[in-house]
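Work Package 4 report. The design task specified in the project plan requires that, given a folded chain encoded as structure tokens, an amino acid be chosen for each position. We show below one input record used in the internal validation round.
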């Protein structure tokens, strides 16, 4: 029943990937990103379990949660033996886990639409074919973003980034941002990276630094509140960050703290780039004001490793993302090329090609 997806996962072993999750004998094996840099894996056997893992940030990053969404649909079709009665509800459950992440919304919606009306035996085959096709296309997107973005980087540069937009936040090659660093190094360029630790989940410290070390790329870690001083001292040549959603005008939703980097870069004439793909462009959002920002539980700010770092009774706010206005973005790096302002026409064109 699972021969197609099984064969493809075996093929991926030759790609030199850092994969966030994969299919294995009617279950999904997922890297628990909450535990990184310690490598622990969990096994998920239902779409509901996958949805909970996304919600709990076990897997995160726009590409990776789109991958998890694919696996959620795949496992649901397998578990139901090809019956699609619950598929619409499962799709809504998966999408609801991270409302700002448009990549998963598009991927899951398109996958479910393509399966509608199929007989059970047809659905069991088609869900595998469609899943493999999406994964292969997304991997190629990461490779192409890497090639396009690496053209901006000169030998000897130091680049700053925030959060983690790498292989385990994507489909394994290097995600939307670390694919650029990986490709630059593969081209023989000597580069280094400054990674913001990225409170409150410390993705920059736990995941970006871990992945860059795996790629053999020198990395230095800073706390988030050091970034402005580092930029002001001209210790970085440029800043490249990922994105979770981009409005048609180029306004970008990304991990909280991105906006502050863009402001500091603008004030110090440092190029600030967004790395993204057509899957992250939402043409229904004409500007960033129309992007829904996910507010997470404030306790995630107050507790580190289960310990309260503040005073009992104090409340915390935790917007998971912020919006960087297009006027602070030097260019947007995509699989279709590097876009400079104005962005609207170019972003609209690539958003239609899905």
């Amino acid at each position: 029943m699972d021969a197609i997806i099984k064969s493809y996962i075996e093929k991926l072993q030759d790609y030199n990937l850092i994969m966030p999750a994969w299919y294995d004998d009617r279950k999904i094996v997922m890297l628990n990103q909450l535990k990184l840099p310690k490598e622990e894996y969990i096994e998920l056997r239902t779409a509901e379990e996958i949805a909970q893992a996304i919600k709990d940030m076990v897997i995160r990053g726009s590409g990776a949660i789109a991958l998890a969404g694919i696996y959620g649909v795949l496992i649901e079709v397998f578990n139901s033996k090809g019956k699609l009665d619950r598929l619409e509800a499962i799709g809504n459950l998966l999408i609801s886990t991270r409302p700002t992440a448009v990549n998963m919304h598009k991927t899951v919606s398109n996958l479910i639409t393509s399966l509608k009306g199929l007989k059970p035996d047809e659905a069991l085959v088609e869900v595998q074919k469609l899943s493999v096709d999406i994964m292969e296309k997304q991997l190629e997107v990461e490779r192409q973003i890497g090639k396009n973005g690496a053209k901006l980087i000169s030998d000897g540069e130091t680049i700053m980034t925030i959060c983690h937009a790498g292989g385990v936040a994507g489909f394994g090659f290097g995600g939307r941002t670390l694919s650029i660093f990986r490709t630059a190094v593969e081209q023989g360029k000597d580069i280094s990276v400054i990674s913001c630790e990225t409170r409150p989940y410390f993705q920059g410290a736990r995941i970006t630094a871990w992945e860059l070390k795996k790629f053999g790329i020198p990395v230095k870690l800073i706390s988030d509140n050091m970034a402005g001083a580092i930029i002001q001292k001209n210790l970085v040549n440029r800043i490249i960050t990922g994105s979770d959603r981009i409005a048609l005008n180029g306004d970008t939703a990304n991990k909280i703290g991105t906006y502050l980097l863009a402001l500091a870069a603008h004030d110090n004439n440092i190029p600030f780039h967004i790395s993204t793909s057509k899957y992250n462009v939402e043409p229904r959002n004409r500007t960033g004001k129309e992007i829904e920002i996910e507010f997470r539980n404030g306790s995630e700010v107050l507790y580190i490793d289960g310990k309260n770092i503040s005073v009992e009774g104090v409340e915390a706010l935790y917007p998971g993302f912020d919006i960087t206005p297009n006027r602070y973005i030097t260019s947007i790096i995509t699989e279709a090329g590097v876009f400079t302002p104005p962005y609207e026409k170019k972003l609209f064109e690539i958003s239609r090609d899905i």
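The mean pLDDT is 95. Validation will be extended to a larger panel in the next phase.
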